[in-house]
Specification:
- The complex is a heterodimer of chains A (192) and B (455).
- Chain A has 5 helices and 11 strands, in the order ααβαββββαββαββββ.
- Chain A is α/β, with parallel strands linked by helices.
- Chain A has one domain (23-191): NagB/RpiA/CoA transferase-like (Rossmann fold, 3-Layer(aba) Sandwich), CATH 3.40.50.
- Chain B contains 23 helices and 10 strands.
- Classes of the chains: A alpha/beta (192), B alpha/beta (455).
- Chains A and B meet through α1, α4, α5, β8 and β9 of A and α2, α3, α4, α8 and α10 of B.
- β8 (160-164) of chain A pairs antiparallel with β9 (266-270) of chain B, so a sheet runs across the interface.
Amino acid sequence: MSSRDSILASIRRHTGVRHEMPELTLEAITYADKLATFSEVLAGAGGKAIELRPGEDVNEVIRREFPEAKRIASNLKEITCATFNPDELTDPRELNGTDVSVVEGSFGVVENAAVWLPRQVRYKGLYFISNALVILLDKTQLVHTMNEAYRRTASMDYDYGVFMSGPSKTADIEQALVFGAHGPIQVVVLLK
Amino acid sequence: MSTKHTIAAARFLKNKENEAWHDHTLWMVRTKRDKMSHSLPEWERLRELASEIKLYSNSHLDTLLEEFEKNAIANGAIVHWAKDAEEHNEIVLRILRQHEARNLIKSKSMLTEECHMNEFLMSKGIDVVESDLGERILQLMHLAPSHIVMPAIHIKREQISEMMEREMGTEKGNIDPTYLTHAARKNLREKFLHADVAMTGVNFAVASTGEIVVCTNEGNADMGTSFPKVHIATMGMEKIVPNLEALGVFTRLLARSGTGQPVTSYTSHYRRPPEGQEFHIIIVDNGRSDILAKPDHIRTLNCIRCGECMNTCPVYRRSGGYSYTYFIPGPIGINLGMLRNPEEYSDNVSACSLCLSCSNVCPVKIDLGEQIYRWRQDLDKIGKASKEKKVMSFGMKFLMERPGLFNTALKFAPVVNHLPRFMVYNGLNAWGKGRELPAFAKESFNDMWKKNKVR
């Protein structure tokens, strides 16, 4: 018997009472001011939310936030401040040394300030390797909770996707919080 | 009444300053968890749902695993099944050899600890690199984790600084956590870029879609899988959740319970491998299917490894992870150790005050403390009951059944108040360790009652 079959046989032999799947009824929290709460929770997670003012250019904001940035990666047409298109690289390792990456988020989750990023770039490493990550997000695309979030992703097709809440962080040295363990040290969500 | 736990705990307690820090720091994490749970009116409902979903999924593992496998294969993943640790390690080695891999970058996985995988692979000449900062620190110090979520919680920054000076050439005496973390970031960046194969654990495996979900704060799992052509994900079979909607219940509970964050920085969903790359998923039993046959202990399979039962446990906080003889410490570890091998791991069941705080905070409602109580009732059957406690129970029974003797003993009890210290506070009296005994009253309640002194 293969290991697969013997494991399944062992499960069947040992399973006693078969419990029913509960009905996933839940009165989940809703937030009165989704945008304000999202920004507040993001700040708590070490990120920064910036709401674009009417008529303001995204590129100006990025330049203002990261005046020192030399290598800016983006495959988005509107990001004219990008210095290269990461999708044109043939090896994801060449992404190393990127100062800022600019990507587009699908929607945000208010309760934890996570942004859903289904892979829309050639190399998913782009989301993690640069020192700073800028996520463009339509501010009308905010859901209250993860329950609602998964109802949305259920109808999406993706090979890889990540809910990202703020920058990479660790507290492995004496519980002292440090940003930028391996991934971005800074995350800015630009709400359009 | 010494067990291996009490002996090791005494060692931990010798450093009063570290013990107080450990206790205080973990309690702070528990406090953060409380703040998070109080911010959601539906918190208790979420715990209830999580527990019920787990009871469903763990009693339908056969069908859910088959569904998961079918969908994962349709997504382009290669699915392996491992009966035990040995088979698991062999599968990993085979994949590494197929790709002539010399090094493996891995993210945190308690399952690979359970299988002693790193030691095995290194003995076969594979360079295994842990990429979670805490795990990397421990790997370079040749130490085991002392907590399942905060593995290096017992290590002080001075020790880390010393090790990093030796291993990575950091400045001598620089103990700043930001400096040290960013030095490790730079050092590990090279490892990420040049790894042959990446390995991750699995927090959740979704049956209806065949995808796996990995949760990290550092982003090390995602960095690890971004450059090599092969990704191996390994999962205990109880990681299965039926669908995305059910997953939403768990991703709301996991980080809030474990570290007091609304969510981990990264909740990463791996569905299909990038073109031209390989995605392997290993489903591991290693004793889990046997637990299904033990109704009293079946709920341990609910565990989502958040670590909250450790943070809240007064014994864990004041004795440290190394005091336990099983590789997973704290309330969940006591139970999992007993399920693994009761004869070998029975020393840990005494590491519990039965306060049941763990049962009250567990996000998937495992009856952790109650199960420990049940294990204690069975200790005598496996010949592991404490001899001192047995003698004492026998003595108490003898005395209680003889009222005359009992009353005489009581009359002479106050004599103890005047005995020299060495006769009262010694190795024979476990209640006199680390605390002062109350003085015996001059008169017993019985005598007072008879003299009508009790009103």
